[in-house]
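In keeping with the milestone schedule agreed at the kick-off meeting, the structural modelling team has produced records for the first pair of proteins. Each record is given below as a sequence line and a structure-token line. The laboratory manager (R.T.) confirmed that both were archived under the project's standard naming scheme.
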Amino acid sequence: MCPWKLLRVNLSHGFCIKAFKKGQKEKFFINLCQTDGIPPPRDITEDELIRILNDGEPNSFRIPMSITVPRTTQDKSNQTCQVCDIAINTNFYAKIEAGGLLREFLITVLFDGVENKYDISLDETNFRILKNKKFIDRLIPHNIQNRDVKQVIESYPSQSAEDRALLSELENPRPLMGGSQTAQGRKPLIEEIDAGTVKTVKNETNSSRTVVPDRAAAAYVPDPTKVAIAQAATKKPESKLFREPPSGKAKRLIGEFHLPDCISSSEITLDVGEDRILLEARKKGYLLDVFVDYRIDESKVEAHFDSTTKILQVTMPVLAG
């Protein structure tokens, strides 16, 4: 039986997620970073991921990652918080960096990974990707077990020549300087999260969730299958955005969104962040995701759907300054 080595890998930054522990005001930051020392998941399109979510195939798509132990640090306000680094493969990071369903799915996996490994539950309705900060504190080099790398590559439906060469090297490892370390008794440092363990696909940058009035009393629980259906037949609704007053300092934004296939507001979900509007009517396939050059007062957003004109009107007060 070959001795499994710990491979020390250095990291490059990716992006930073600001989240909160569920039911608390305590901040928790995730530094998503990238490295060539972790293999990528098998290459997959968004259409394939949609099929996996719809068909419920829990073992058909795994995302290898390394999660560090959460550590205490201070945020920009010198408040105590926790942060951990989660590393994924560099090529896979390039694929999800621009957004889309794969990134939404990945962020869901990150949250579940932190909870499964360290029993820290994060609030999936209250988090955002920081725009101007790539990481909090500092990035810590990771130790990756080559056993875990081997298991990931062996899970690929088809293997390239490069994959086979790496497998051969892992099965016949050369001694590392300073002797070897066994993985006996250790929890795997690469966490493989199955699609089937994902409880919900989250909106990766929202900081608040607003529902249209007549469903406000119902708890909103996103469902990955519904996300998949929406992504499979996405259409952008016609929209208009006005500012009041037309000149001078803006006091509010008024958005009008035409959703002709919707019958009632119960089919519509509206997420408004500080500078982002995300509108979804998943069963009808509508998806609109836009950023605005204003700071919206999320707590005072109001929305009304006219079932006759099929227009959703959203009033968004603008913060001063």
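The second protein of the pair:
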Amino acid sequence: MLAMFGSIGMAMIILACALPAYNSWWPIFVVLFYLICPLPTRIAKLPHNADDSLRAAHAMFATIGIVMSSFALPIVLARAEVIQWGACLLTLAGNVGAYGTMLAFFFGFESSESGMW
């Protein structure tokens, strides 16, 4: 199921770029946000001597900022008339699919003994 939803999300983003009606590859830049989204959490889980709750809060704040940026980028591009609104909506739907897949993976497969959250 995770692979299916992730594939549907990526297919929507590729369609937002490749359909002849839209013909702009700017929406593909949201994939960079997908790649850097798990990094703050992974960095915060590294062993440190600092307060764990503070590291968790900073990691959550950075992750939320990255996720919100991936939703804001297509809206800003559409308002600036760089891409069309249809491509924006397809990209936003692809974001929901991709982040839903990531969220399901982290809640489904991460160990609850880690003590991070």
